[in-house]
Every structure is written in structure tokens, then in C-alpha cells.
Design goal:
Helix content: under 10%
Largest sheet: 6 strands, mixed
Order of helices and strands: EEEEEEEEEE
Distance between the termini: 40 Å
Number of strands: 10
Radius of gyration: 13 Å
Low-confidence stretches: none
Mean pLDDT: 97
Structural class: mainly beta
Number of helices: 0
């Protein structure tokens, strides 16, 4: 059974940083592409970044240069390093296995 558990969200001031984690289990993590999505109140869920099993990444234009995705295939964990956070980055962040389920999400709030 695939399980994805996000953590690391919280409240941060504009310009600050957060590192999100997504602990995966129930599948061979190294064989799957993974993605981070986010959903702000009243908005549709949007792709933040995808990373293939081979490490090829695809970032949304809105986060390029500020966010960095990485994966640790030994720990079966996906990460999202978020720097220079803006109020418009506030959302619930979800990780997702390509072709598979979603995690439960972690809230990111950017406010002074």
C-alpha cells in the first residue's frame, strides 16, 4: 500500500525558507517519478515541480530559482527546499507519486 507523508510546513515570514519532506513507503521509490503540488484557498491545485526517477526536474515558472526539489532514494524521501518565500507561495503542499496517490498535505503560511 502506497503511503506518502508530508512534513515540514509551517509559518514563515516573507523572504524566509522552509524545507518540506515527503516520506514514501509501500513501493520502490527509486523507480518512480514524484511531484510536489500546491493548492491555495479558492484556487486549483497546481504543479510546483516534478522529478523523474532519473532526477530530471521540471519547475513551474513561478518557483524557478527559488525552490529546489531533491530525492533520497535510500531514505525513500522527497524534499522541497523553498527559499525567498512570498505570500503567494502560501498553500497546502502535496507530494504525489506519478500515476499514484496523493499525500495528505502540509500547510505553508507566508506572512509577517
Amino acid at each position: 500500500q502506497v503511503q506518502l507523508v508530508e512534513s515540514g510546513g509551517g509559518l514563515v515570514q516573507p523572504g524566509g525558507s522552509l524545507r518540506l519532506s515527503c516520506a514514501a513507503s509501500g513501493f520502490t521509490f527509486s523507480s518512480y517519478g514524484m511531484s510536489w503540488y500546491r493548492q491555495a484557498p479558492g484556487k486549483e491545485r497546481e504543479l510546483v515541480v516534478g522529478i523523474s526517477s532519473g532526477g530530471i526536474t521540471n519547475y513551474a515558472d513561478s518557483v524557478k530559482g527559488r525552490f529546489t526539489v531533491s530525492r533520497d532514494n535510500v531514505k525513500s524521501t522527497l524534499y522541497l527546499q523553498m527559499n525567498s518565500l512570498k505570500p503567494e507561495d502560501a498553500a497546502v503542499y502535496y507530494c504525489k507519486q506519478w500515476g499514484g496517490p496523493w499525500g495528505q498535505g502540509t500547510q505553508v503560511t507566508v506572512s509577517s
